[in-house]
Write a structure and sequence with these properties.
This protein has 486 residues and is α/β, with parallel strands linked by helices. It has 15 helices and 13 strands.
Length: 486
């Protein structure tokens, strides 16, 4: 249950703390057939009946491709010091192979130049789930070759933008790419094969390491390399041995399947044992784990809600709902599990307040994760690369959009960040998810995470009250109060 983290209105963040907002290419750009761009797996997924709520797609999204100048002005008005965006792989390298399309790179060159002109630091993510469809048709992330294609793509983008972007993230939330895309099938490409999910996880790890090498070979020495994970704050429902083992199993699949290879150069033995009936992990080749353990300059953490788990009590294999990614219609869950090797684990919704996603509100989970990775990745600075909440925002009669619930959500989580910093966590910045209301994956346009309201009919942008609140925080570095009428 959410318990507010004590914080004073005088809590002050360091002067060099980055205040940013985040987006991703497919969720905001639109223009899916312009500038040489070809379909990604999300274009294909959106055209598969029943996969996306309302039959929505990112074809137009919020038209950022044509309106990016207005959006950069919004960022400047909100005093943002950084902007995290992703590059559309199929806009830059349409087949996932071969030379770059200069028209695609020109869009990102112009965007980055526009950011720099307004004093906003660009933070570039190479992959936010939009694999070129041609690579998926050749096998996708379960195939080893995709990791090498990703490294080639990373090199192309670095050559084009390395002189003006100094913060680079290889992958965003590889857990979602692997286990929702290839395990439960609720994300593109919609496959439901537990072994393919595990293979994809490894090749995403390998792709990260290979891409990091390619970036290091091209970028200036001062450039910062990162990955953005969505680690789960996993909690056992009780302290019984069975529930504690359930927590261990999910921790292995949600967290250590990535941090093991990236931070230690190894997959933990318990993960291998838990999944041994599915695979012998022979897709891990000699030398792979020395590649995956590439030194990080920053570890990005995306956080929304904790997970509460228990062992099944009736001997009925049932994974229960993964509360981070329910079915898009909000009724029931996928029949396929995103948790290979954990069929005896049940998920539970904690009591207390929920967001419009039915996700629990608990900033202590963010605090716990920051302290965990302070211990597990000593010397690696941390960055909150996503944190935010969806609410049912609607304009008032005067056109203003008031969202006090989001302000209280942000206040609680930022107080948790400040508390972690006081307790020794080296947190360098915070990126609000999201700058704009946008295409929310399998939910279509039914969920609004943005600090800026978007009228999808007219594409008009209206900063919500949370945007003004956050902009003042970015200007002063002082965490303001969040009262009931904030």
């Amino acid at each position: 249950m959410y318990e507010p983290v004590p914080a004073s209105a005088s809590d002050t963040f360091p002067p060099d703390f980055l205040w940013g907002a985040a987006t991703s290419a497919y969720q905001i750009e639109g223009a899916v057939a312009e500038g040489g761009r070809t379909p990604s797996i999300w274009d294909t997924f959106c055209r598969t009946p029943g996969k996306v709520s309302g039959g929505d797609s990112g074809d137009v999204a919020v038209d950022h491709y044509h309106r990016w100048r207005d959006d950069v002005r919004l960022m400047a008005d909100l005093n943002l010091s950084a902007y995290r965006f992703s590059v559309s792989w199929s806009r830059v390298q349409p087949t996932g192979r071969g030379p770059a399309v200069q028209r695609g790179l020109d869009f990102y060159r112009a965007l980055v130049d526009g950011l720099l002109e307004r004093g906003i630091r660009p933070s570039l993510t190479l992959y936010h789930w939009d694999l070129p469809q041609e690579l998926e048709s050749a096998g996708g992330w379960p195939e080893r070759d995709t990791a090498h294609r990703f490294a080639d793509y990373a090199g192309l983008v670095a050559e084009a933008l390395g002189d003006r972007v100094d913060m680079w993230t290889t992958l965003n939330e590889p857990w979602c790419s692997a286990f929702l895309g290839y395990g439960s099938g609720v994300h593109a490409p919609g496959r439901t094969d537990p072994v393919a999910a595990l293979r994809a996880a490894h090749h995403l790890n390998l792709g990260h390491g290979l891409a990091a090498r390619a970036l290091r070979a091209t970028l200036p020495k001062a450039a910062k390399l990162a990955i953005s994970l969505n680690p789960s704050a996993v909690r056992a429902r009780t302290q019984s041995p069975a529930d504690l083992d359930a927590r261990r199993r999910i921790d292995a699949l949600a967290n250590r399947v990535f941090t093991g290879p990236m931070l230690k150069g190894a997959y933990d033995d318990d993960l291998l044992r838990d999944t041994a009936r599915l695979t012998d992990w022979s897709f891990v080749h000699d030398g792979d784990l020395s590649i995956t353990k590439h030194p990080l300059d920053l570890l990005g953490i995306n956080y929304y809600a904790p997970s509460v788990v228990s062992a099944a009590t009736d001997n009925r294999p049932d994974n229960g709902p993964d509360l981070r990614e329910p079915r898009p219609d909000g009724h029931g869950e996928s029949a396929h599990s995103p948790w290979p090797g954990a069929n005896s684990v049940l998920f539970h919704r904690p009591p207390g307040e929920l967001t419009a996603m039915d996700w629990s509100i608990d900033p202590t989970g963010l605090y716990d994760l920051l302290m965990r990775y302070t211990r597990e990745a000593p010397g690696v600075p941390l960055m909150i690369t996503e944190n935010g909440a969806a609410y049912d925002d609607k304009p008032a009669p005067d056109g203003a959009v008031h969202d006090p619930d989001r302000i209280r959500y942000l206040h609680g989580h930022l107080a948790a960040v400040r508390r972690a910093m006081r307790d020794g966590a080296d947190v360098r910045g915070y990126f609000l998810w999201s700058l704009l209301d946008n295409f929310e994956w399998a939910y279509g346009y039914g969920k609004r995470f943005g600090a800026v309201y978007v009228d999808y009919e007219t594409q008009a942008r209206t900063p919500k009250s949370s945007a003004r609140w956050y902009g003042e925080l970015a200007r002063t570095g002082v965490l303001p109060e969040a009262g009931p009428d904030a």
